[in-house]
Amino acid sequence: MRRLYICLAIISAVVVLSRLSLLSMKRSTEALDAAALACIASCDNDDGMIFDRISELMICWEDYYKKVSVITRSSSLEELAVSVSRLNYLAASNEGDLRSELSAIIYRADIIYENQRPVLQSIL
Amino acid sequence: MFIVFFRAVILCIIMIFCVRLTGKRQLGEFQPVDLVVTIMLSNLATLPIEDISIPVAMGLVPILTIVCLDVFMSYISMSSKTIRRLISGSPKILISGGKLDQSVMRKLRLTVDDLFEALRSRQIFDISDVQLAIVETTGQISVYVKKDKAPLTLGDVKDTAAGGDPPLLVIDSGSVVKGSLELIGCDKKWLDSIMKKENCRIDDIYIMTADSEKNYTVIKKDGHI
Prior knowledge:
heterodimer, A: mainly alpha, B: alpha+beta, CRO Repressor, four-stranded antiparallel β-sheet, 9 helices, 8 strands, about 50% helix, globular
């Protein structure tokens, strides 16, 4: 029976860790999304705060990457990293691609989170 | 993590189903569950080692899940005969009293070569010498030779009476194995008389074996699973 209890403890630990990692990922994704939305708003309003907003997004991104890379290392995460690295250049060159790149960041972060949710579509 | 966890559970169940589907002849010495666990673990353990893009946690979750499922299944099998049959299958009588059951051969997809190979490995070259041959859930063939064809033992010197069937499992974890009871030519009445003699109920018996000469062995439950 001792072996059964050990296995129950392991399975419980796996389920709890899975739930916690999902929660942590959700928080990080929401923070990244909020930072990206703040950048888009700054772009739209043209308030001259875009570099500050991008710096804030970078801080959120570092925190996001640290947490998410432990859970998953998908190609979407690599694409997200490329998108984030381009933001400063796009803001400096004043090209219209900045807004679309920020939208892509939100979209990719959401896709990564959705792929980790235990729904039938993701499992299969 | 949930994705890896659920995928490991689904794959393990599908693998067991597939191994059960392939039948006993594929197994050799493993039970179906053991074979599945061994195959899956041997692959899973190497993946995170070879591919550094896979986080270690993602490699550990399916390994731990499968090992735990294996332990759970063994406990469930212990407590339920139906589930035990579902997961591991049941032994099949291939030869009884020197007569080969061809329907069992077809059912298990055993060839004559397979059968003779198993018999020859036990120094048996004539099917009629076999009193009972059973294909176990592991795929191995257990053979009981007719007493007049079996090598002489000290027991035979003491009791030279011509032999009958080998002892069969009559009570398994408190439940009567009706097929075995019929095979040894006994009935419930005889079993009740033994219970009376042993001063216990059928529920109290862990294992009881008996042969056609009414010799029996009783092992009572010790109160632990």
